[in-house]
Amino acid sequence: MLPVPGAALRERRWRPSAPLDVVLTLSPHRRGGGDPAWRRTPDGAIWRTSRTPEGPGTLRVTASGDEVRGQAWGPGSGWLLETLPSLLGADDDVAGFAAMLARLTRSHDSRHARAAAFVAGLAGRATGLRIGRSLRVFEALAPAVLEQKVVGREAWRAWRFLLRRYGEPAPGPAPEGMYVVPPPEVWRAIPSWDWHRAGAEAVRARTIVNAARHAEKLERTTTTTAEASAEADRLLRALPGIGVWTSAEVRQRAHGDPDAPSVGDFHLPGIVGYALTGRKTDDDGMLELLEPFRGHRHRVVRLIELSGVRPPARGPRMAPRDYRAF
């Protein structure tokens, strides 16, 4: 595999301090099948594009034994390799989570002890999972807004259309059809008819366009430490059209927040309730069940989602709508 002309290859090798599953850790950044910014190739490599503070870049990540190899192309290649450990969860407090589970399993409250033992079993089957930080807020925000109150296929279709039309081809020898997310100023200039062609109605379009005006301020929230996610939550939810669910989805990916559960998700409370108690619940019930795990509530939800435990289906799936026909 050779880089295309004008896109010099840069490389970094990194050894994580604990077992790491690259696919599990990076999969939250994938927005459905055919995502122009995320690809897994038959050789097992994960490809991602990003618009970094230094410009567009393409990243290829592979793992062999206890070593991760990152290869990058484009103006943003140096930044992508510098932040590769953060993307793969080097800052994730896995040891703190393990200590929490150990303490809870010894709890005098039998409900907490049973739930912790169940979650510990899930964690033992996903030892390589990390909550990584992309450090790119707007790149996580735009697709999250597209996913508001619609089924995934509908949102992913819009994401593909907009990236292919307004993004730029990925630097380097990326798989065919990969593009870099457009910069905020391009999102602000997308005409109404292309939002319509993408299948995104005016409300979601306005939310993204308005957020793009504040992108620079949002990106600065990744430069602090433990307080970064809380500050990002405050700024995000001050923007029209962005509520608790969208804020959590952004902070999970951009800030690597292990305690940002997606409250407001249509399916999630039922899944979490069924996994931990055998009964479906609502958002308030989910938060009550997750309270003993405060500090790692998103991580617990992620483990439950990966487990495949689901309540019995009792009706047809919600069909995707097509705003292009309206």
From TrEMBL:
Keyword DNA repair: yes
InterPro entries given in the database record: Alkylbase_DNA_Glycosylase/TA, DNA_glycosylase
DNA damage listed as a keyword: yes
Organism: Microbispora maris
Keyword annotations: DNA damage, DNA repair
Protein name: DNA-3-methyladenine glycosylase 2 family protein
